[in-house]
Amino acid sequence: MSLDDHAEDLASDLGVDKEEVKADLENLVEYSVPVEEAKQSLRRKYGDGGGGSGGPSEVDVADVTTDQGNVTVTAKVLTAGKRSIRYQGDEQVIREGELADETGRISYTAWQEFGLSPGDTVTVGNAGVREWEGDPELNLGESTNVAYADDIDVPDEAGGDSDLSTLEPGDRGRNVEVTVVEVERKTIDGRDGETEINSGVLADETARLPFTDWEAREAVVEGATLRAEDVYVREFRGVPSVNLSEFTTVEPLDREVEVSDTATRMSVRDAVSTGGAYDVEVLANVVAVRDGSGLIERCPECGRVTQNGQCRSHGDVDGQDDLRVKAILDDGTGTVTAVLDDELTAEVYGGDLDDAREQARDAMDKEVVADRIRERIVGREFRVRGNLSVDDYGANLEVTEFEASDESPTDRATALLAEVAE
Ligand SMILES: [Zn+2]
Prior knowledge:
This protein has helices at residues 3-14, 18-30, 35-45, 268-273, 342-349, 353-363, 367-377, 409-421; strands at 70-77, 81-87, 90-101, 104-110, 121-132, 135-140, 145-148, 174-190, 193-203, 208-213, 225-236, 239-244, 249-252, 264-265, 276-289, 294-298, 310-311, 315-316, 320-330, 335-340, 381-391, 394-404.
């Protein structure tokens, strides 16, 4: 960095004339003052926080990294969700959400009440930076100060109103308008003993997602249309799940929420790129049936598939027969492994568990069951609906519907061309 660059830096940080700062800087350096020390002394001269070490200088949101211990940013509050956590044995209410400036968005956790509310533009002084789910996050604690600042324009809308299709695990302080499609009252072992919860499926115009209502609200009944404010999103079995906490407000809606009964049709590539999606549908060819399909054995303790009577967790076990298919689907944009349960497997096999046992006994080989399934489905196109999860080993589609496609190859080709042309 040249002296000129240092001067430019300082001048923009301090909001003073660059030439003036540069003259001062040159002067000090001429007297053999190291440049960092010289800058520090000029910060004091021009009144940036004063103090020996000075405060952290202000940075753009996009430039915040976990290498910085503390930063100061001026940003708009997009969301401000409330959540109660247990910290060092005590119940504590925290605020969490996202801040944004012109350069980007960043999530934050506020460990005390700073009065943050969506739409406010604030200067957050001396916020800690830590890593959260792979990205930098601001931590607002005891040594942080928050001051209102002049309103700034940001590309993101403040407030947290969201479509279900845009929600991702980690989202907080969001508002949704939904229809309750399915709901079940359950008793679980919560952190304060037995608790009643509601769990089921919510839908709006864009998607369907599983949800948990930790307060077992009476208003959350099948068919109800609701506006829920301040919900958070967690990953549950690989897909986003909407959580209604004690701080979530739920109001009946006086409008209908159109929900579609059909799953969201996606290309395999788009589905996999979501990182996990609930109730999606792909149209794809079965290109192979993987090992571990057909007549299999499961550990009676944990349900894992056993290899030669061995469970990975429980060793030598007396395995229980089951039917399963792991089929590789390919639609030209990508591949995903479809996992069919016993009922769907019986359909594609064309027989039940007893039939499979008999066929295997006659042939003295279990693999004949998988072979018959291969003959029946490999090379054919299917409409496959299910819940998609993605992990280090690849993408899996837990199948709920598996039907031979009745769409004409021409329609299919047109759709694929449109996809490729995007
Ligand atoms: Zn086991």
